[in-house]
Amino acid sequence: MTARIRRPLAVAIALAMSVVGMVGGAAATGDRGASSGSLLQLRLAADEPAEGRADAPLTLLEFTDYQCPFCRRFQAETWPRLKRLYVDTGKVRFIVRDLPLEIHSGAEPAAQAAHCAAEQGRFWPMHDALLASDADLSAAGIERIARAQGLDPTRFKACVSAGNYRSTILRNAAQAHDLGLDGTPAFVLGTVSQGELRGHALMGARPFEDFEAAIRQALAARPPAA
Questions:
Q1: Which of 11, 178, 181, 205 is the most exposed place for a label (fewest CB within 10 A)?
Q2: Tens digit of pLDDT for each residue in 136-152?
């Protein structure tokens, strides 16, 4: 499933049906569907949060909303196996970008908190904690999470209060919308060349098997190394 905003039913149905061609025949259920059958292209930044080898043959980019229940489902049910079998083994590089939905009041403050944690070298622990099923995204709750991750509370609070990363968050969200990715979680799986990711979309908290099928197909389609 996917958290969405203002998506007409007919469009949602069409998007869901298009996923078969995108992931090598994997079935779609509910509103899980690709946003488009066309190739997506987006420029990557050298300093954005990423896990895995920089020279991994594939890159999986997630647009996430920390308050989205489907993002939390992906984090709990699918991400651990993806990380263990594909990211940690050097086959896939994983990148996270922000897509706070308007219906989630805690999403943008949580995204700010994740970026501020990155200043102290704790992006991924903070990211994981903010996506926990019971994470409290109130201001006090986010401060408690930050303390639990060992962040300097004074420095963290100053960063969050200043809103230093609001422009980054808004830019990430605008790019997602420009690509037609208006729900979360939204993923782009593909290859990177000269700093540009080219790939196809996968929408929703899909099961691990759907990601695995798409990854295997993409790896098989790559030309052999010279």
A1: 178
A2: 999 999 999 999 999 99
